[in-house]
Amino acid sequence: TGSQLREIFDKINNLLSGKPVQTGGRTVSVTQHPQGLDFVYYKLAEKFVNQGEEEVASHRDSAFTIGVVTSGIWELHPRVGELFLAHLHKKCPYAVPFYPALKEGTSMEEYQRMLGYQVKDSKMEEEDHFLKRMSGLIRLYAAVIQLRWPYGNQQGTHPHGLNHGWRWLAQMLNMEPLADVTATLLFAFLEVCGNALMKQYQVQFWKMMLFIREDYIPRIEEITSSRQMGSLMRFKQFLEECLQQKEIPLPKGALQSSFWRS
Hints:
Blueprint: H1 2-16, E1 21-23, E2 26-28, H2 36-58, H3 62-76, H4 78-91, H5 108-114, E3 119-120, E4 123-124, H6 127-144, H7 162-173, H8 181-223, H9 229-245, H10 257-260
Antiparallel strand pairs: 1-2, 3-4
Helix pairs in contact: 1-3, 2-3, 2-4, 2-6, 3-4, 3-6, 6-8, 7-8, 8-9
């Protein structure tokens, strides 16, 4: 509920502000150690990113509740935002966006890790699991850039707003697509913040959508084998419906004003 989320937010904010906080039956404060605050900044940012690949990957709608807390804490404590991006980019280079190239002298296992795969005992994770985690991280990022904590000071600008999403989209479309990955991530991103981008960029946004349909999807099709068609078909269907209706629907799970009264 909205009231539970406020409680969580206030607890995190109090901890970062140096106030004593009750947790697990004891009182903790970042002032107890000279590096206490730096440590908490780092671990909190890591925790937000972990929620993207675990929670959001399994329950898509949670991108909004986790995203609004991340965005609000970022606004009050900019260091958390910098570290959030660092953890995000390390786990998911596609959030930069960047496709790491295989360099001479890099082992295959190391390269797979650079691409974002989890490698345990020289065994690479399944492609489905990998794509699910990556789209969870992109969904969280797409939620963060459009959301603001409703109880904060709304005078300033968002610390990492929609313009970053517009830039991400443009950069993605300037890169050669990767089979499965590109279609999955574009779909995840547009499903979560397409509505917000449409309202902000209007005519420019629809030009971008037409470019994806006419120019970019054929390029994805060229490199996609028949067994990898699932994510591309879902993305194409979403795009067609949006272009026909001249509307990107409000994402499922978006926080309405009634949520904050719950």
